[in-house]
Every structure is written in structure tokens, then in C-alpha cells.
Amino acid sequence: MFGMSFAEIMIIAVIAVLFLGPDKLPSTMVQIAKFFKSFKSSINDAKSSFEQEMKIQELKEETLEYKKKLDSAATSMRKTVSFDELEDIKKSTAGVTDTFKEIKESMSKVNEMKTDPLGIKKTITSDNTEKKSKNTQDKGEDV
Asked: Element (H or E) spanning 121, and its range?
């Protein structure tokens, strides 16, 4: 204990018996034992509170790390699109929209050709409109 040998402890005990006497020695030994016990418990308390503080510090560090990860994930998820980017997207899709309009027009022409493959209805309707316009012109000249 404390780096002392048995002989050194015996010398201290003999000196304590001589100075304290047999009457006060037992109560003094009890007080010394209580002091060492309280000293040991206070050392253990300090050690446990230090360990708790270290654990709390580690938890804080882990929490901050997770918070940084969550913030970066939220930032990447919330990527804001500026109006310039929206205009660029609109311009890039304008060509696609025009292409779809052209496809729609060509599909309507194809459907017309399916119903009237030779274009007879068009010629008949165009001939009728020409005849009507000539008739109205002729009638107008006669009057």
C-alpha cells in the first residue's frame, strides 16, 4: 500500500501506539479508515462523472455529425431552381412542343387520307365553292 513494505507499516503502527496510546488508537484507526473510504468514494465519483462527461461529449459529436449529414441531405433535396433555369428548361422543351404539334398535324392529315384516300371530298368541296363564287359573281353582273 502506497509503495511501503510490511516493515515500514509496522514501524508506523508502533509509533502510533506510542503517541496515541491504547485508548485512542482504535478510534483513530476507525477515523483513518473512514477517511480512506470517503477519499476512495470521492475519487470513484469524480471518475464516473468524468466518464459521463466524455460519453456526453461523444454523443454531442455524433449528434453534430448526424445533423451535418441531415442538413446536407436537406440542402440537396431542396435545390432551388432559379427563374433563369426555368427559362432554360422552357426553351429546351419548346422544340419538343413544336415537334408534337407537327406530329399532331401530320396525324390529322393521315386520318383524313384514311377516310378519303383520293382526296375526292376536297376536290368536290373546292369545286362547289368555286362554282358558288362564280355564280354569285355572275348574278352580281346581271343585276
From this structure: helix 120-142
